[in-house]
Structure formats: structure tokens, C-alpha cells
């Protein structure tokens, strides 16, 4: 019989997946497997289920609402122009973080791990998605901000860094996120601080805004 016609180029590509595609699929599988293994506080019956209440307290410490309310209250009560400038920029950083994370979650739409219990503290619609971790992003951002703009003794600086790391690790332990969600969140938050510094709000750059306070 006649020889079979050659497959179109696009079909050949589908039948022969690229090395990059295989590598990414493998990394995703490893990420899901390791994240599930590390979700030791995902439920009361998990390996470290007794530590779950403590992990949930840590979860609240990295949530956006306490940070926003605390920063806004401090801004309203501050009687120092230098303190108001720092607090106003921290408020700007927190709002920028919330918007950026919400946009990325809505675009990527990666579901939370299957072993996660949906009992999170104050969620909105995009919080059903997990990439990136907003807690990790906020922790890295706030950590850099505080270390740069507050005069802290060395033990306190160490505690700030430890807090950011513990908040990030707790996201995987609670089963809220996969490891890649947290790692990307840390990188994003670290980079986002540079944007805040570049767009720093001051009485010279935005006098009308400072006139409100």
C-alpha cells in the first residue's frame, strides 16, 4: 500500500512533549507531593494536629486586616511628621500588596491543596485560589519595610525575620498553600518593597495627601 502521510508539525509536537514541559510537570508533581507531606497541621487528626490552634494564631498575625487596621490607627494617632510618612507608606505598601496578590490569584486560578480546611480567617472571593500566598508576600514585604525604617535592636530584628519565616512556613503546615505558592510569594513581597521605595510618598511628592493628616 501507499506510505502513510507525514503528521502535521503541530501534531508531532503534541506527540513529542518538550523537555521543558516534562520538567515542569515533574516539578509540579513534586511540589504537590511534598506540600501534602508537610501539611502536618492541616487537620485536628494530622500528625501535628495539636499545634493547629497555634498555627492559626500565626495565620492571623500575617493577615492583611490586622495590619491595615493597625497601620491606619497608628497613622490617625501619630503626632510626628516622620512617623506619619513611614506609616502612610506602609499603608500604601499593604494596599498595593493586596491588589497585586488578588490580581495574580484571579489570573492564575490555582486551587488550594485538597487537604486544606476552608476555615481561614476573613476571606474574599479570590481567596479560594492559592497562588501566590498573600501571607508570604505580606510577610516578606513587611519584614523588609520594618528592618529598613524602624530602629530596632539586633534581637528584635532577628524576631522580625523569624516571624516572616514562621508565617510563611505555617501556610504549608496548615495545608493552605503548596510550597511554590509560598516561595513565589516571598520573592514577590521582597521585590514589591523595592517598588514601594521607588514610589515613596513624601510631603514633597504628594503634599495634598499629607495635608489630610
TrEMBL record:
Domain of life of the source: Eukaryota
Keyword Glycoprotein: no
GO cellular component: endoplasmic reticulum membrane; nuclear inner membrane
Enzyme class (EC, first level): hydrolase
Reactions mediated catalytically: (2E,6E)-farnesyl phosphate + H2O = (2E,6E)-farnesol + phosphate; (2E,6E)-farnesyl diphosphate + H2O = (2E,6E)-farnesyl phosphate + phosphate + H(+); (2E)-geranyl phosphate + H2O = (2E)-geraniol + phosphate; (2E,6E,10E)-geranylgeranyl phosphate + H2O = (2E,6E,10E)-geranylgeraniol + phosphate
CDD domains attached to this UniProt entry: PAP2_containing_2_like (cd03391)
Residue ranges of domain Phosphatidic acid phosphatase type 2/haloperoxidase in the record: 86-197
Annotated Pfam families: PAP2
Enzyme Commission number(s) of this protein: 3.6.1.68
Membrane spanning residue stretches: 86-108, 150-170, 190-212
Subcellular location as annotated: Endoplasmic reticulum membrane; Nucleus inner membrane
GO molecular function, one term: sphingosine-1-phosphate phosphatase activity
Keywords: Endoplasmic reticulum, Hydrolase, Lipid metabolism, Membrane, Nucleus, Transmembrane, Transmembrane helix
Main location: endoplasmic reticulum
Repeat is among the record's keywords: no
Membrane topology: Multi-pass membrane protein
Biological processes, Gene Ontology terms: lipid metabolic process
Similarity comment text for this entry: Belongs to the PA-phosphatase related phosphoesterase family.
Annotated PANTHER family: POLYISOPRENOID DIPHOSPHATE_PHOSPHATE PHOSPHOHYDROLASE PLPP6, SPHINGOSINE-1-PHOSPHATE PHOSPHOHYDROLASE
Identification of the protein by name: Polyisoprenoid diphosphate/phosphate phosphohydrolase PLPP6
